[in-house]
C-alpha cells in the first residue's frame, strides 16, 4: 500500500512539473510596429495599428494561441526614414519583439533593409505599405497584392471603357525606375500609352508641378501611385485648376483619407484599387468577423477603414504563424512558418507564401466614389 501511495505521489508531482513546464512555455508574443502615428500618413498608420490590436485583443480574451498572448508595441516615426531605422533599432533592443508589422513608406523600408536590422536580428516584417515595387527579401512578407497587380487591374479596367491615353503621377523614390517599367508593361498589355509622367518628391505632398503638366497636356485618365497625402493634394489642386481627366489611384492613396480632406465634388468619380475586402460590408467571412469583433469591442480611436482591415488581416497571419509553431514560437520559427504558409484562408481572403515568394495575395478590386460621396464597388 505504501509503495502504491509513493508511486501515486510521484505521478502527481510529475504531472505538476509537466503542467508547470507548459505554463512556463506560455509567453507573450511581442509584435513591434514603427509607423507614422503622426504626420502626413498618421491616419493610415494608426488605423493599421488599430486593426492589429482589434484582433490581438480578441485572441487574448480567449487565452491567446497555444497559451501565448499578444502585445502590440508601437513607435512613431512621423514618416521619416531615419526615425524608422532609429526606432526599429531601439525597439529590437528594448522590447524584444518576435515579429515586426505594419510599416509604411518606400524609403523607410529601404533604409531599414539597408541598415541590415532584419537580417542581423533574424526577424520577419509582416505587412507593409509602399508606393514602389520591391524585390523579394527573405525577411519581408506582405499580406496584400503587389503594386504590379494593382496597375494591371487599373489599366485593364480603363481599356474596357475605351480609355487608352494615360498620365502617371508617382513618387520619385528609390523604386521609381522599377515602377515606371511596370506601368509601361501594364499599359502595353492593355494597349494603352502613358503620354506624360510627373513625379513628386518622396516623403512630401508637393503636387503643383505635376498638376501644371497635366493641365497643359490633358490625358483621358491619370494613374496616381502616391501616398494618401500626396494623392489628396494632387486631386484638390488638379480639380481646382479645372482638370477633368478621370483619376485612378492605387490602394496606398487611402480612400478614407481622401474623403476626409476633399469635397464630394472633388472626389466624384475617383476610383481606387483596393487590396482587401470592403471593411464596411459583411458579404465576406472576414468582413463579417471584422465587424462582429468591432461591435463587441470598445470604439477604436480612429474611423473604420481599409487600412484597419488590412492590419486585422496582418494580425491573423501573425497569429497563424504562431499557432503553427506550437509551444515554443521564435523569431526564426516565425519566418519558417510563414515560408510554409502556402494557402491560409483568413476568412474568404487567401494569403500564401513560399520561399522566395513573399507577396501573399492577388486580390484587387475597384472602389469608385459616387456623386453623393459614397464608396461603391
Task: Describe, in plain words, how this protein is organized in 3D.
This is ABC transporter substrate-binding protein. Keywords: Signal. InterPro entries: Leu-bd (IPR028081), Peripla_BP_I (IPR028082). Belongs to the leucine-binding protein family. The protein is of the alpha/beta class. It has 2 domains: about 25-145 and about 280-350, 3-Layer(aba) Sandwich (Rossmann fold), CATH 3.40.50.2300; about 145-275, Rossmann fold, CATH 3.40.50. The protein is about 45% helix and about 20% strand. It is built from 14 helices and 14 strands. The chain has helices at about 1-25, 40-60, 80-95, 105-115, 115-120, 145-160, 175-190, 210-215, 230-240, 255-260, 265, 285-295, 305-325, 330-340, and strands at about 30-35, 70-75, 100-105, 125-130, 140, 165-170, 195-200, 220-225, 245-250, 270-275, 345, 350, 365-370, 375. It has a 7-stranded mixed beta sheet, sandwiched between helices. A 5-stranded parallel beta sheet has the order 2-1-3-4-5, with helices on both faces. Strand 13 (about 365-370) and strand 14 form a beta hairpin. Helix 9 (about 230-240) crosses helix 10 (about 255-260). It starts with a helix and ends with a strand.
Amino acid at each position: 500500500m505504501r509503495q502504491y501511495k509513493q508511486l501515486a505521489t510521484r505521478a502527481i508531482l510529475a504531472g505538476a512539473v509537466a503542467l508547470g513546464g507548459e505554463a512556463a512555455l506560455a509567453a507573450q508574443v511581442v509584435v513591434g510596429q514603427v509607423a507614422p502615428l503622426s504626420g502626413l500618413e498618421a491616419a493610415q498608420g494608426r488605423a493599421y495599428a488599430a486593426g492589429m490590436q482589434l484582433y490581438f485583443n480578441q485572441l487574448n480574451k480567449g487565452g491567446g494561441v497555444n497559451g501565448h498572448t499578444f502585445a502590440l508595441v508601437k513607435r512613431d516615426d512621423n514618416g521619416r526614414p531615419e526615425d524608422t531605422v532609429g526606432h526599429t533599432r531601439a525597439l529590437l533592443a528594448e522590447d524584444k519583439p518576435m515579429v515586426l508589422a505594419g510599416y509604411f513608406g518606400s524609403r523607410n523600408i529601404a533604409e531599414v533593409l539597408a541598415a541590415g536590422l532584419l537580417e542581423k536580428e533574424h526577424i520577419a516584417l509582416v505587412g507593409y505599405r509602399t508606393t514602389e515595387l520591391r524585390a523579394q527579401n527573405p525577411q519581408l512578407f506582405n499580406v496584400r497584392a503587389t503594386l504590379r497587380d494593382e496597375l494591371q487591374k487599373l489599366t485593364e479596367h480603363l481599356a474596357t471603357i475605351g480609355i487608352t491615353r494615360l498620365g502617371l503621377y508617382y513618387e520619385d523614390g528609390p523604386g521609381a525606375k522599377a515602377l515606371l517599367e511596370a506601368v509601361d508593361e501594364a499599359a502595353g498589355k492593355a494597349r494603352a500609352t502613358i503620354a506624360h509622367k510627373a513625379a513628386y518628391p518622396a516623403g512630401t505632398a508637393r503636387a503643383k508641378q505635376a498638376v501644371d503638366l497635366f493641365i497643359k497636356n490633358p490625358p483621358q485618365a491619370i494613374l496616381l501611385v502616391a501616398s494618401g497625402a500626396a494623392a489628396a493634394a494632387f486631386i484638390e489642386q488638379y480639380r481646382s485648376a479645372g482638370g477633368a481627366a478621370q483619376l485612378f489611384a492605387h490602394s496606398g492613396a487611402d480612400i478614407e483619407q481622401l474623403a476626409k480632406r476633399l469635397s464630394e465634388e472633388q472626389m466624384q468619380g475617383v476610383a481606387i484599387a483596393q487590396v482587401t475586402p470592403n471593411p464596411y460590408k459583411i458579404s465576406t467571412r472576414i468582413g463579417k468577423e471584422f465587424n462582429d469583433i468591432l461591435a463587441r469591442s470598445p470604439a477604436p480611436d480612429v474611423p473604420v477603414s481599409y487600412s484597419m482591415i488590412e492590419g486585422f488581416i496582418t494580425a491573423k497571419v501573425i497569429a497563424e504563424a504562431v499557432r503553427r509553431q506550437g509551444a515554443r514560437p521564435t523569431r526564426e520559427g516565425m519566418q519558417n512558418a510563414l515560408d510554409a504558409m502556402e494557402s491560409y484562408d483568413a476568412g474568404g481572403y487567401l494569403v500564401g507564401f513560399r520561399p522566395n515568394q513573399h507577396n501573399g495575395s492577388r486580390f484587387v478590386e475597384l472602389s469608385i466614389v459616387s456623386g453623393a460621396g459614397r464608396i461603391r464597388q
